[in-house]
Every structure is written in structure tokens, then in C-alpha cells.
Amino acid sequence: MKRIAIVLAATSVLALGACKKQAPESLPPPPQSSAEPAPSTPGPSAPQGVVPGTQAHFAQQMQGRDTIYFDTDKFNIDAEDQAALAQQAAYLQQYPNIRATVEGHCDERGTREYNLALGERRANAAKNYLISLGVAANRLTTVSYGKERPIALGSNEQAWARNRRAVTIVMN
Amino acid sequence: MTARTLFTAALLTVLAGPALAQNAPAPAATSGSVVALPSSQAAQAPAESDEGFTFTVTDERPWQDLSIAIPAFATNRDEPTPANAQGTAALGVELGRVIYSDLMNNGLFRPVGPDSLPRPSYAQITAPAWGTWSGRSAEMLVHGYVRAGGNDQLTVGCYLYDVQLQQELVREGWVVSPAEWRRAAHKCADLIYSRLSGESPFFDSKIAYIAETGPKDRRIKRLAIMDSDGANHRFITNGQATALTPRYSPDYSKIAYVSYVNGYARIYVYDIGSGRQTLVTESQNPTFAPRWSPDGRTILYSMAVAGNTDIYRISASGGGTPQRLTDAPGIDVGGSYSPDGSQIVFESDRSGNQQIYVMNADGSGQRRISFFGGRAATPEWSPRGDQIAFTHIVGDLRIAVITPDGRNLRYLTDSWQDEAPTWSPNGRIVQFFRTARNSGETSIWQVDLTGRNERRLPTPVGASDPAWGPVLP
């Protein structure tokens, strides 16, 4: 019985984590009909109301690939990260008038100030890779939140893995 | 014990002892001369009390075991005072309670407070009723008085007696504004503690920290301050922007801290008097981990440039060119000056993970001192110079101390996540913050350098990043 309870608890944590949307840190601007410089979307059908070139549109198009993940204390860009960043870069190339900021984050199992520095390192690693793919440096900024803004709330390996991340946010 | 100088504009040491008996019936004979009273008379008090034996002659047991009676402070005349709606007599009870709490909460001695003791008369302050106190098995006796003087000032006297020997051990007096009456109680607790333990005082000091509210993913973090006992709590920022890692300037006039007020981490110096704040340095890069030099003239900060973090120093008076102290690839962060200002202990991952290094104040002579496994972070040099407290990370985060040569590793705590030690002004107590697993709730704790007397500090909401300032000037 006890074991069942534990399994259930674990599953529900996972379920929660899995369905939790990785919400953008800044809300997208309200949809408005200002003439977007963006070309008519080639992609298959943005649902109504989501304006191309906005954070909402970017997050939707990336399907989770607006975020890359890191190992403990690491900031290297692995193959999976490269694929995600390539998609981000393609999007940014497609909408040349938008800018983006890369947020660096850490898990809670480190000291605050080191994590601010480590988050900055992660954000810069992602930014530099985007630049290497042809995104102009002056379109990209970074910000580190250290361990201040976790997205997964548990204190376990799965949560920490989700929190060691760099998230690209489109700014209009 | 040597006589300490306690004179400041805000808090004047005056001698109240000999004057007391003479003045007992005559209210406030000296009230107009608060500022003038001091020097000649004050100088003679410690000299008198230091005559003859020292305490160690009278008792061989550890000083921690001493029983101390702290009855209410007496008053020459129960008068209205802005410090207490019920007058100076009630204020006298409060003074005794604060002293009792200071000693009790820190595990010092075996104090008994005013709520369970008879109340001495004003005349008895300088002539204790010895039989009353020996009958209660008190070994030490604290007496004091409070007088409302002219210009809205309070005069508070504090006396420590050895009951068995029927001798005065030490006395001091202070003039305080009513708003600062608790400081007189802390000064008295410091006097007792210093006289009986031989240690330097620490109660009359303040703590800056970060008040935390809200859930883990939407945590609101506000800059806040409080006295060393948690009293006089005050929020300084409103929580709209995340605030982190405050540090009091040594003279308590300013607080350096990190704010995201413009969207990015930057160090601001908040002026407590004016309420204004200024950037420590104009930069396009994030700045964090502010630290003051012991003389308050220099601020250390860490700055990340293209992902590489180094430590810089800049004049605290504003302007001037920052000087870069480290240039290792990787993260060099934090920093804490040795008490004489000649050296800086800091954290670097240049070896591959966080370790503790020491350098001269100009950045020269950098060398690693931590070689005991795990990661070592947030080093803080003791105000006494003999220890470095830090966060040791081996899975869990624990508070530990080493000597400045990196030896004699000793753990002070054993919990899931304790980090960011800060020293009491006398280097006998380490404060830190503890994070609860899952909820992420934070609280400030402290522990003796001996590893004993671990306790949580009372704060109105969650609390992290404590920074204990020096004894108030």
C-alpha cells in the first residue's frame, strides 16, 4: 500500500511537471493590428489571435525548443541544444525586426551569487551559438535569474534538470 | 576588561553612578547637561570597577552557567515618555525584558527576567538589597535605572554586581533618544556579556536581509532591516523588483544590494537617510555580490562580461574607475575582506568547481586555500580574523568554518540547505539562511562558533541573505 502511494505521488508530480506550460516570463503584448513587417506566415496556420513575430507566436512555433537544458554546473551546448537553437535562429532570421533576450537559470542546489554568474554563463552560451548561426549580436541580450525563477517546483533531480535552462524570449 | 569608548552623537556614554544617589530625590538635575556631562566622569567609572579582583577569581565554573538576576530598571520618577505610553516605570520593565531576552535567546548564562523578580527601588540601584538576591541564588545581579531628562532624552544606567562578593563589577550609562531606548538595553546586555565572558560586544547591531513572500515560482523579495534581536523591523523596498544580497556599510548609513528594478541585476547603493539609491557603477553588464571594505571606502563587486565573471573594486564615494582584481577564465565571485583590509577571501571555479581563494586587496598573490573535497562557496572572513565561514556543498549545503590557511574544517550545521554565512560583530556567532526542501521557504538561523545554540530568528515573513553589521557606532 505504501509503495502504491509513493508511486502515485511520483506519477502525479511527473504529470504536473509534464503538463505545466513553460510560461514566458514577460507577457506577450496584446494582439493588435499594427502592420507587422513579417511576411505572411509560411508555417501552417497560426491560430487566430497569435500575431507572427510575437513572443506568443514564437513560443508556439518552437514547441518547447525555446528552451535548452544543462547538466549540473555545466553550460555547454550539446547536440539537442544545437537543434533547438537552430530553430530559434531560423525564426529570428525569418522576422528580422524582432529582438530576443536569453534568460539563464539554475537549479536551487547552489549558492545564490554563483548561480547568478552561472545563469549568465548559460545565457551567453546560447546567445553565442545563435550568433554563430547568423543572428546579429545586437538583436540579442542576456539576463541571468540564477536560481530565482524556477519553473519546476519540486526538490528532486527531475525538477532541477528542468530548471537548469536557457530560455529565449522574443521582444517586440 | 579595558574601557571601551562608546561616545557617538546618537548615543552618549555618561556616568550616572555617583550622581545617582545624590540626584535620587531631585528630578533631572543633570538633564540639561546630557551632552556636557560625559568625559571626565565617564572616564572614572571603568577605572573604579576594574580595581581589585577579576571574575575568574570568584568562580571557576564556565561563565555560561552563571545565574543572573535582571529585575526591572528603576526610575526616579514615573514620567511620560514617547518610549512607553505608560511612562518610565513601565519602560524600566521593558528594559529588563530586552536584556533578559538578549541573554536568554543566545544561550548566554542563566538569566532570570523582571517578570519573575521583585522590583528594586531607585535608591537600591546603587545599594542593592543583597539578602534579597542571595536568597534567590542569584550569582550576578543587574540593576539599572531610566530617567526622562530634558530635551526628550532618556538617561539609562546599567550596573553589574557580584552578589556573593557584594561588589560592583562594572557600570555604564547612556543618553538615548526615546525612539532608541532598546539600544540602551542592548548596550547593557553587551556590558554584562563582555564583562563576564571576556568577549567583545555584539547585541547593539543590526541585520539587513531579504524578506520573502509568495510561492516558489513567484517569490517576492524585498530588502528589509531589523535589530540584532529582530526588533524594529522595517521593509525598505516594496517588492515590485527582486532584491538580493544586501550588505550594510560599516557606518550603517547605506546598504548595497542587487536589484532587478530595471530588468537586469545591478548593484545599487541605498542611502538610508535620504531614501535615494544610486548605481554602484554604470555598466551594460550585470553586477552583483556587493561587499564593503572594513573602512567603508571601497566596494567590491562581481561583474559578468560575456559570461565570464570577475571581481572588481570601486570607490564607495561614487565616480572613479573600477579596478579589476581577478582575470581567471571562469567565475570569480563574492569576496570578503580580512578585518585589517589587507586581504580578500573569495570564491572561484577556475579549478573546475567552486573553491575558496585568498588574494591581497590589490588582487595580487591569488592562491587557493580549500582542499578538502566538495565545493566551497560564499567565504566570509570573521571580524576577529581567525576564521573563515563558508558554504560547503557536498550534496547538501552546510555552514562550515576553516582557519585562513584553509585548515581545521569544522561544520556548524547539518541540514538540507544552509548557505551564506554572516558573522556577528564579535566573531562568536554565525548567521545564515536555511531553505526548506520542496516549498523553498527560507528562514534565518544562527549558531555559535562552537556549533551550539542553533536557533531560528523571528522574522515576520520568510527570510534569506542575512548580513550582520558591526556594533553600532
**How many helices of chain A?**
5
Whole-number tally of structural domains of chain A? 1
What is the CATH third-level topology name of the largest domain in chain B?
Neuraminidase
Work out the number of β strands of chain A: 4
The oligomeric state is heterodimer
Name of the CATH homologous superfamily of chain A: OmpA-like domain
Walk across the major sheet of chain B and give the strand order: 1-6-5-4-2-3
CATH architecture of the largest domain in chain B: 6 Propeller
Poorly predicted runs of chain B:
1-59
Percent strand of chain B equals 35-45%
CATH class of chain A: Alpha Beta
Cα separation of the termini of chain A: 53 Å
Specify the biggest β-sheet of chain B.
6 strands, mixed
Instruction: Spell out the helices and strands of chain A N to C.
Output: HHEHEHEHE
CATH 4th-level superfamily of the largest domain in chain B = TolB, C-terminal domain
Question: What is the gyration radius of chain A calculated from CA atoms?
Answer: 17 Å
Strand count of chain B: 30
Largest interface, per-chain counts? A-B, 27 and 42 residues
Order of neighbouring strands in the sheet with most strands of chain A? 1-4-2-3
Report the radius of gyration of chain B as a whole number of Å.
Answer: 24 Å
- What's the level 1 CATH class of the largest domain in chain B? Mainly Beta
